[in-house]
Amino acid sequence: MKFVKAVLSVIVAIGLVYALNRPWGKVPALGSFLSPFTGFWQNGEKLADPGAEIELKLDSLKDEVTIRFDDTGVPHIFAKNDFDLFYAQGYITAKDRLWQMDVQTRAASGRLSEVLGPATFELDQRSRRLGMAYGAEVNIKIALSDPKSREALLGYTAGVNAYINQLSPKDYPVEFKLLSYKPEPWKPINTMYMLEQMTLTLAGRSNNLNMSNILKKYGSEVVNDLFPDYPMFQESPIIPAGTPWNFTPVAIPENKPGNTKDTVLTNEYPKEEPKPEGIGSNNWAVGPGKSKTGYPILANDPHLELTLPSIWYQVQLHSPDMNVYGVSLPGIPSVIIGFNQNIAWGVTNVDADVFDQYKITFKDTTQNSYWFDNQWKPTRKREEVIYIKGQSEPFRENVTYTHHGPITAYTDDSNGTINLATRWIGHEPGNSFLTFYDLNRAKNYDDYRSALAKYVGPAQNFVFADNGKNIAITVNGKLPLKRKEQGKFLLDGTNPDDDWKGWIPAAQNPFVKNPPRGFVSSANQSSTDQTYPYYINWIFAPSERAIRINERLEKMTAANADSLRMLQNDNFNVLARTVLPKLLSILQTTPLSATYKAAQQVLTDWNYQNSPDAIAPSIFEEWMPALKSAVWDDEFDSPKAPMAYPSRDRLVYMILKQPNEKWFNNIKTPQTETLTDVTVSSFKTAVDTLIARHGAMSPSWQWSEVKNTEIRHLSRSLKAFNAPHLKLGGGSGIVNAITKRNGPSWRMVVELGPTPKAYGIYPGGQSGNPGSPYYLNLLDKWEKGELNELIYLSSPDQKNQHLTSRVILKKK
């Protein structure tokens, strides 16, 4: 009997070992992950010993580097030359964020499936067909040909690899263990992949196909009415209305567009997803006349997906010619948003029209030539090889390239094959890295303008302030020279008139310096008023955030850092102030049950603040999408030919100024609906939805509970690594733009002066290791809307109560 038990025990043990060391469906192999010798047990970390001093001897360094850490885990790097500075930045960033750097590089280069299997194949294929690797390869050649960017990239790469090379399997970040793969050597091109990924996030969408479907179905009269090129109701452009354009514009081609109006795509084509609101940003700077200190104050809070670890990484970089503090993007040397002793800068997305799709006519199915300018033009092919975990053979595909760009999508309908090529700023050669390299060292306004001239994309609104008491903002990037609305619809790949015709001169990009109103600001709204002579885009973010920011800055006097911090946390709902009184007046004319009357009363008593514990914003934020659907779904929700919806501004204008418009009628019902009908029905739908999801009206209807903001681990599936539940206000269209999954990924305020004082925070912490005390250590303050003082050191031996350990890097 004992023998049988022993044999069974051995069999069970062998079976368990076998089971734990192979994947089961979506469940990865857990053997190495659970191992007490190499598994996740080895990833626990402790708070840094305040008095600790560690000396590391590493390959490739030229001289000694000192890194001081503060009590939030931020490294302050002091080097004697640029190579060592970026080497140390690469080393310490990899120490905290290696898996994040790896997975985002794989996403951009189309290599996720190598470690994640078939589940990410379509993502990889999309990256390859979009030509992201091609764009990275074009840009790395330019970056390595410039001595400044070459030194930075090679130093950073050497530092990352110095960290990787010293790791044993037990030291791998926990995600590598869970997914059973090991870090691979970092390459300079990986930095270009990271830049491509950010370009995709901020400038990798277009709705020209959906707009073309509308044009075919309804004609130009409806398009011009419902989809105007400038907001009809209200706007507060980035460059103040009336700002003179002190330049002579270059000629803008007035060419005739090609013929694509008969194209309708079937539902076999992937539906274009609109950019989620919340992917945007705020920035502003107040001049000395509005500042309590007599110097400018600058603020920036980029709105991106809220993730763990954070998209950003705090760092101070000090060398003989530079002392800069701010946030970097893991994988990219230098500081992207920040300040030095002389200037501060920040960015928001322009959303320029730099992603155009062209209908291509091939000679035959070989795709070896295409019709352009009345002749057959040869294509070129690029083989893309995607390795897929668990499959013995890779997937191979030849992606066809035209002079417009790669063929990224096609489908079959009754008219045959539709082939689309993408012209995208992500393919454009340049060296945007030099913009940030120069900004890190800039001393004044002229340096700022010189740095911006090197930037390609994605186009950003660069806000600026300096100790010369200047403030400025520039709508900056390499902006294509196009006729009005070129790219609003699908373009004709056979017609040279539909090609981009060069670039808007960089010096003529919209900008303003020291405007009379005493501040500059942006919130992704329209770049300019309609007097600007060039086309940038026909649609931008809704205006409510910008309106609220500008209202408050207009009234602001004797501002300090806390004034701007409070503005970053502003929860006022401009859309509700604008449209809710009209909607409530309509409800008052209609008999309602007690349940609906209670919700109506809550809205009537509302102060328009999207506070976390308020119920009114939950009702309003559920009502507005329901109203939008009630008005537009019957005409624009088509599975056969996906279409865009008119903007929020256009709907508000119609509610307030055109209450008898035909669009309020639901064409799918026999009766004729009015504004009153859709207002009442959508209000009831909103209340019914809240009841179905959260029960009768109670504290469960509080805005923080209904919105239920999630900060997820980058894997999207490792829920144990997510942030805990948060009690947050804000929302879409609110200055405090926290939605369910997007929001202020970094809040920064900088008071300039003889010694800059700066404050900042992001949700999470410095470390990407869930077992580290620096993984979530900043989250509580971020949730409360507070900021940490940013410790700006002038030497490694400077005394500060927040400093902890010291690491000395020496060459072997």
Largest sheet: 11 strands, mixed
Q: Which strand order does the major sheet show? A: 1-28-2-3-7-8-9-10-18-19-21
DSSP strand content: 15-25%
Please provide the count of β strands.
28
Strand-pairing-aware structural class: alpha+beta
Weakly predicted, low-confidence segments: 15-20, 31-42, 264-270
SS summary, helix count: 22
C-alpha-based Rg, rounded: 28 Å
Highest-level CATH class of one domain = Mainly Alpha
Query: Fraction of residues in helices?
Result: 25-40%
Give average pLDDT, whole number: 92
Describe the structure in brief.
With 812 residues, the protein is an alpha+beta fold.
Structure characterization notes:
Strand 18 and strand 19 form a beta hairpin. The protein has an 11-stranded mixed sheet, covered by helices on one side. Mean pLDDT is 92; it is low at 15-20, 31-42 and 264-270. By secondary structure, the chain is α+β, with helices and mostly antiparallel strands. The protein has a domain at 574-701: Penicillin amidase (Acylase) alpha subunit, N-terminal domain (Orthogonal Bundle). The chain is globular and about 85 Å long. The chain has 22 helices and 28 strands. Helices cover 32% and strands 19% of the residues.
